[in-house]
Structures are given as C-alpha cells and as structure tokens.
Design goal:
With 254 residues, the chain is an alpha+beta fold. It contains four helices and ten strands, in the order ααααββββββββββ. The protein has two domains: 96 residues; 123 residues, Immunoglobulin-like (Sandwich).
C-alpha cells in the first residue's frame, strides 16, 4: 500500500509540471472555444464551441485536482505511512520459535569417569562441608586396622599409602578409602611447589574402602616437594575435609 505514495512523493515535481501543463493547455482551449462561440453565426457550430469549452474547463479542473492530490499525498499521507512503518513490530521466525518452544530444563552434570592427567588444568572447586568441631578424637583407622595418615580427618577420606613425607618416583600406587553416603566421585589433586592452586590429575566414580584408589605416573613431574590430596564428593557436590599429604618426588631411578 505504501508503494504508490512513495512513487508520488518521488516524482512529485514531474507530476506538478504535467498537471500545470495540462491545466494551461485546457484553459487555453476553453478560451479558444469561447472565441469561436462569439464569432460563429451558425447554431450547430455555436453548440459545438460551447460543448468544447465546457469539456476544456472540466479537464483543466481535473488537472488542478490532480496537483492538489499530489500535494496532499506528499505533505500528509506519505509522512503518516512512514511513521506507521517505523512503529511496526517485526516478527521474525526466530521470535516465533521462541514463543512456541517451551523452556528446556538444565541437564544434570555427567558422572565423572577416570581421566588421564592433564597439566595444568584447574579443577572445579566444590563447596566444602562445615569442619567438625575440634574435639579430642582417637586417631582414625581404616579397614584392617591400619592407621591412616594424620592429615586425614574424615573417616571416608583416607590415604594409607604413600605416607605423609614419603619419597616416591615412577608409578605410585595410592591406597586408602574413598567412600561416603550418597557417594558421587573422588579425585586426586596435586599442588606444585611455590603454588597455591590445586590441579586435578585423576578422577574416579567408584567408591573404595581400604583398597587401591588409583595409580599415577610421577615421572612426568620435576623432582621436588609436592602436596597431594584426596577429595571425595557426594551427590550434592559437597565433600568433607580432603586428605592432604606432602610427598617428595625423586628423580627417576632413585
């Protein structure tokens, strides 16, 4: 609908010129017809002159009306149409899809599986449980009566071997307990010397009680003193106090 007003506005100058030219031509014709009407002495010729005069005046009025119409469209109709187009709400296929597509639920996080070491990837930090009150308790033990490391506070998070301060090299077998109610996963984390960041080196999704937790290769690391910890998480991604020990990685062959 806005195509015709746009064309009228675009060619308004030409239309004004054509209307003016047409009006002038038909007015001039009307005066010529009147002149013949005054000079003729025959009735038939007089009637033809009168009819031509009236026809010329009518066409001149049409030309003037067309000029007025061009002016009205250019000054009033077209601006209103432009305002209406600016105010239109454009509905795109994407917006329609958003309207009819129901919200989707956020998928649950996948169950962790055993992964190989990747350095230096920073592990996600879960929310720790509140620390047990500092009350005198007997040294925790694991199945079989073997005493746990002194740094292991939670009975479900225990490292039996290596011991705190042990020197290790090559493939290290980690033994202990990783078992909680609503167990989800456990992981090994390592802290480099002179660093405060913990990096996940392995994770597992099967609980262990007093057995082999996993094995990892220390030959990929520079010799030095590292901190190693065991983190056991439940289904809410909370975990008790991790078990942290200090180990000395020796050069290969020692």
């Amino acid at each position: 609908m806005a195509v015709i007003p746009d064309l009228i506005v675009r060619y308004a100058g030409i239309l004004y010129a054509l209307c003016a030219l047409g009006a002038f031509f038909y007015v001039w014709g009307a005066f010529q017809a009147r002149r013949r009407e005054e000079l003729t002495i025959f009735g038939k010729e007089r009637e033809d002159a009168v009819s031509q005069e009236q026809h010329s005046w009518l066409l001149a009025a049409v030309c003037v009306s067309m000029a007025v119409g061009v002016y009205l469209v250019s000054s009033f109709v077209a601006p209103r149409l432009e305002l209406g187009q600016d105010a239109e709400v454009v509905i795109t296929p994407t917006s329609l899809v958003n309207l009819v597509t129901p919200p989707t639920s956020t998928p649950l996080p996948p169950t962790p599986t055993a992964t190989s070491a990747s350095f230096p990837t920073v592990a996600p930090i879960a929310t720790p449980l509140s620390r047990p009150p500092d009350t005198p308790t007997p040294a925790p033990t694991v199945e079989g009566g073997a005493p746990a490391n002194a740094a292991c506070i939670s009975a479900g998070t225990q490292i039996i071997a290596p011991r705190n301060g042990d020197q290790v090299s090559g493939i290290v077998e980690v033994r202990g307990t990783a078992s909680l109610p609503d167990f989800l996963f456990y992981k090994f984390e390592l802290q480099w010397p002179a660093s405060e960041e913990w990096v996940t080196i392995q994770s597992f999704d099967t609980p262990v009680a007093g057995g082999i937790l996993g094995r990892w290769d220390t030959s990929l690391l520079e010799p030095g003193t590292y901190k190693f910890r065991l983190v056991v998480a439940d289904s809410t991604y909370n975990y008790p106090e991790p078990c942290v020990i200090s180990i000395v990685i020796a050069p290969p062959g020692i």
